[in-house]
Amino acid sequence: SLQMGNFKKHARMPCHEDAVRVYVGLPLKGESVDDKAPSDTAFKTVWKDVCRGVSPSTPLGIDGVGQGTNIRIVFCLAEGMRMLDRSCLASATCLSLKWDERDCRLLIRFVAVISSLDVRRGILGMRRGFGTGATAITKATMDIMKGFASAHHGAPKPSRHSEPEVNEELFEHIRQITHQLVIDAAADEQRSG
Q1: What is the mean pLDDT of residues 31-51?
Q2: CA–CA separation, 130 and 21 (whole Å)
Q3: What sign results for the dihedral spanned by CA atoms 38, 44, 48, 50?
Q4: Residue 168: pLDDT over 70
Q5: I need a labelling partner for 54 at 20 to 30 A (CA). Which of 5, 7, 70, 149 fits?
Q6: CA-CA-CA-CA torsion sign (88, 89, 93, 99)
Q7: 61, 145 Cβ separation under 8 angstroms
Q8: Quick one: pLDDT band at residue 21, thresholds 50, 70, 90?
Q9: How far apart are CA 65 and CA 73, in angstroms?
Q10: Three-state SS across the chain?
């Protein structure tokens, strides 16, 4: 029956404790988070492979590291780079964006300058299949900026939470400090700019 004593008794059962730990993403008793994370060797191997242009879907030959793990490692490495880029852009005083659009793909590169005149270059983001025309390019640009201003945007394994939240302060700062937009001769890009 539904009595408080029965609920308390059930809550103390090991199977219930394990189920709750799994549900909230904690390791089971006796397990360490380090036991579940890929090794430093796996991260270093994936980094070297990515730098050489090897696809993340290529098996590494490391025990316990499959294609899904490779893809998540690549995301972690890329997110680390984006964290550094976000930090730089948050303190930047001037930003130049370069659009490269072809075959319904838009890649936006950036060059940021901070007050000490240090320069950082990187990729703001990329969108595929966003449509055609100046309006579609403008919307894709805003989506890329919002994605860049959102931690964990595009994570390969959806979290229990909703979509990543846009850091509105960073998003607005990026919009305010953009002083130069470099585009090629494509008419749609020129109209969108």
Answers
A1: 74
A2: 40
A3: positive
A4: yes
A5: 149
A6: positive
A7: no
A8: low
A9: 10
A10: CCCHHHHHHHHCCHHHHHHHHHHHCCCCCCCCHHHHCCCHHHHHHHHHHHHHCCCCCCCCCCCCCCHHHHHHHHHHHHHHHHHHHHHHHHHEEEEEEEEEEECCEEEEEEEEEECCCCEEEEEEEEEECCCCCHHHHHHHHHHHHHHHCCCCCCCCCCCCCCCCCCCHHHHHHHHHHEEEEECCCCHHHHHHC
Cβ atoms 56, 74 nearer than 8 A: yes
Strand order in the sheet with 105-114: 119-128, 105-114, 92-102, 178-182
The answer to whether residue 129 scores a pLDDT higher than 60 is yes
Placement of tokens 């993340």 in the chain = 56
Question: d(Cα 182, Cα 100) in Å, to the nearest integer?
Answer: 9
